[in-house]
Every structure is written in C-alpha cells, then in structure tokens.
Amino acid sequence: MAYIGNRPANKAVVAGDLDPAVITGQTALAESPADTDEFLISDAGVLKRLDASHIGGGSLNLISTTTASGDSTIDITGMDSTYKNYKIIIANMHPAVDAGVLNVQYIMGGSAQSGSYYNYYNHLGYTGGYAYNASQDATMAKLVYGSIGNANDESMSAEIFIPNPSETTFRKMIIAQYGYVDNDAHTRVGQHMSHWENSTVALTGLRFLMNSGTIDGGIFKLYGIS
Q1: Which of 161, 69, 68, 86 is nearest to 77 (CA)?
Q2: Radius of gyration, CA atoms only, the chain
Q3: Coil vs helix vs strand at 72
Q4: Cα–Cα nearest to 205, from 64, 69, 68
Q5: Residue 165: per-residue pLDDT
Q6: Which of 15, 31, 205, 216 would bridge 77 by S-S if both were Cys, CB 3.0 to 4.6 A apart?
Q7: Is the pTM for the entire model greater than 0.90?
Q8: Smallest Cα–Cα separation from 124: which of 207, 162, 84, 180?
Q9: Rounded distance, CA 129 to CA 148, Å?
Q10: Closest by Cα among 70, 88, 69 to 79
C-alpha cells in the first residue's frame, strides 16, 4: 500500500496495545492441559513456547468424595487408565466400636477380593517405642497396627498411594502412612504396605472395613495424580 506523506515509524507492540479479549475471547480449556499443549512464557525477557509436559507434575485431581456415616464398608472406586497413579486421603475416620482396626480389601474384576492372598506389613511408632505386625495369606490387609479410639474426639487419618493400578504385569500393591489417637488417648503413627499375590488383574478400587462394628464417620477422597 502506498503512503501519502511520511511512512509511520515501526513501533514495538507493548502490553497496553493488547486487548484482554485476545485471551478471554477464546474457548476455555475445561480440563488439565495435555502434555502437548503449549504455553507462552518470558525466559529472561525472551518469549518462548513451553510444552505442558515440562511443567512440574504431582497435581492432585479430585475424583470423588465419600462421607462415612455408620457404614459396614466404604468402597472407593474410579481408578482406571486415566492416571498412572492414584491417592486416597482419609480424614478423621471414626470407628463405632472402641479399639477398632481399619482393614482394606482390593476391588478387582468388579468385586472386593476376600481370598487368602493378602500380604501386608505395618510399622508403628508410639510413646512406648516401636512395633510391627505382618501377615501372609490373609483375607484382608490391616491398614493400621493397633487400636483406634472411638471417643468423641478420637480418630484416624491416612494417606494411601496406589501405583499404576491399571497395568496388568505386576502384582497390585498399596503404600500408606497414617496417624491416629488410640483407645488410651495416645498418639500413634505408622506405615503400611500390602499386595495381592493371586494375580496381576487391574485394581479399580479399595474397600475399607473395621474388624468390628461400623465406620461411624470420616471423609474419604480419591485423587488422580497428574
């Protein structure tokens, strides 16, 4: 295009020249970015594009929340190939019966497994020292070692890591850490590991149940880790 008079001088685009609608007017992403999605960043003043795969992972994506209320069992399902790893966080699990023990069974093939194929180990620390318990070929895995108190202000909380539950090469396992107030109002903290030795079928969930009585209360949240 020809100019009449002097041609305008080149001018760098600055922040004030940009209309926010350049971004807000676009379609919103309604899920976590895929590894191939890209961001525009300033690297020491130089604009560069960045693949989402280079951004730190470990984000927890809430899948479900279950609140216990006098339940004989709590089933947490929803683990599939969407995420490689999953986590369940239990907050303030309160047993109906004093000196209760929280157990776990694996949900595989559409049902909770109760065969004698659970191998588990618990390591416990408390004011009196240290202790452990373990078992092979049990019908369920003890998630905690010791007795959880059921006074109004006593409870147990835990964080359970479920690695790659959908793959079918390796035996399924869970790894957990937990803390609780016992039936003598003492503080206890422990670690748990268990696995199912009978097959390598995909794990789709976990069932929680007490050794006696019901799960009076508590919040169970399932997260996918991205």
Answers
A1: 86
A2: 26
A3: coil
A4: 64
A5: 98
A6: 205
A7: no
A8: 180
A9: 17
A10: 88
